[in-house]
Specification:
- This protein has one domain: Trna Endonuclease, Chain: A, domain 1 (3-Layer(aba) Sandwich), CATH 3.40.1350.10.
- The chain contains two helices and eight strands, in the order αββββββαββ.
- The protein has helices spanning 4-22, 98-104; strands spanning 26-29, 39-42, 49-57, 63-65, 78-86, 89-97, 106-108, 115-119.
- It has a five-stranded mixed beta sheet. A three-stranded antiparallel beta sheet has the order 4-8-7.
- It starts with a helix and ends in an 18-residue tail after the last strand.
Amino acid sequence: MAAQGQMTGMQGVYLVAAELTRLGLIVSVTSRNARGADLFATDQSYKKTWSIQVKTSRKPVTYWPLGQHYKSEISKTHIYIFVNLRGKEKPDYYIVSSQTVAKKGRTFERPKGPWHIFKREGLKLDDWSVFGVTQSN
């Protein structure tokens, strides 16, 4: 049986894939061995392609945990999408470049080992412009 965290993560991945598809991109879910990328997306002319890391929380939070490689996995085409699930309401999506995550992410030492996080402060909600699309209902 899948753990609750795995189910939450997969829900976020598929919600983001659906949203990107709704916005006109072609989206593919990666296999589990693609470190740092949950999705690949391309525009319909196949001229622009992005790798996407999705981080999901079951409820609205002010920060998300990051993987240990967040400072080295930087590319103009590598994007993080942070998702706050909101029950039956539409999720919150925060779209952030990997450069911004590397710059603003924080690592804290604790007895169990380092803790890497990215805080939500200052982020715009539903800003899909990095993909060359605008949010429309």
